[in-house]
């Protein structure tokens, strides 16, 4: 994938990355491009095509046509091609990871992990799809009162059509394939609109599917400005399903999309409730992992720590000790804390920090920022009147709220507009289950930080955190619809006659 032939196929003479349509790499007729800014240098690193609405139409028409043939392709053949794409993707993990480092400042080791995990996800999806879609149901009419056994009903899962996938910047490969693979195994066509930051890594990931030999038109990747093609894509009449991961834009998409299945994951304010009997060393390790990995730019990051007053001092001390050991710097050096994705993101985080300082939060470390690089910061004695108590920073800044009762912690968690994940730390399993039941979140982790994976686990949010459920099995089911065929049996007198 790093060879000259492949490079020429994906990039034009002006070093602008092409978009992928109908099995070919193309330049946009707009003659315009969109720059991708390196978060570390804050300078343009790459350029991608600024596609037009007419090119969106062409992609959708090609996808619709290709999908009709793909739906008739045997399941085993679909799975075979997915396995092939997974192998090619993992084979080229190094160059794709390098794009992740430069586009989104992901630490090098984490970037490689994302690509490998994505290949594993594709292969698992192929296997799971064969199992799920290879089964149907057989129903008999006399199981319902008042009916004789005069009807047999056969049900199976059939594809929806064209699926539009919109992943976020923080996992542009993994959260793309988590949408692409289920859509394809289920017999759908797939149109990918990658995030601007992460688009080049996504384009190279798509090239893995191209090299695997999928039919022309079945997979497309269209780049451009959301202001020009965003609504046009999401409201396109040929789109039959949208899978979106991101921020506030998702709510607008859901209002405009119409009567099609939606899978929306829109962020969170994941709460960590710490009880008096918790293993504080375990808690501290998970707060560091959950709150600061990839500089806190994860929807499942720990976003607020709700700790019982009696153990708060001890926990804060343990976390501070670990924060001091975090390395800060460029992603190429595999630092723990790397620059956040954009200057606007860094400015937003700084606004939360300034607000907390004005309202009396205790700064456990000195606030330090250089460009997009923000040093890790634990804020103690945070109160509910501070923005950081409720808003999602998407950065390496973590608030600690001291609570006097478990009920107080549950109340704060449930008062949030978000409800993606949460976690509770205690040695008492009965308390853990009761708290889990009371927390209004899609997933509760007991004695571990929130996490999306493993990728076959159900993953969903409540309230403003989204609609629908992800995870490989759930995504396959969501990207299909039920088809019933009813066999009406002749009456006994007719058959005897």
From TrEMBL:
The active site is at residue 265. It catalyses: D-glyceraldehyde 3-phosphate + NADP(+) + H2O = (2R)-3-phosphoglycerate + NADPH + 2 H(+). Its EC number is 1.2.1.9. Keywords: Cytoplasm, NADP, Oxidoreductase. Pfam families: Aldedh. Residues 25-484 form the Aldehyde dehydrogenase domain. SUPFAM superfamilies: ALDH-like. GO terms for cellular component: cytoplasm. One of its GO terms (molecular function) is glyceraldehyde-3-phosphate dehydrogenase (NADP+) (non-phosphorylating) activity. It is found in: Cytoplasm. The keyword Nucleus does not apply. Gene3D superfamilies: Aldehyde Dehydrogenase, Chain A, domain 1 (3.40.605.10), Aldehyde Dehydrogenase, Chain A, domain 2 (3.40.309.10). Important as a means of generating NADPH for biosynthetic reactions. Belongs to the aldehyde dehydrogenase family. This is NADP-dependent glyceraldehyde-3-phosphate dehydrogenase. It comes from Crocus sativus.
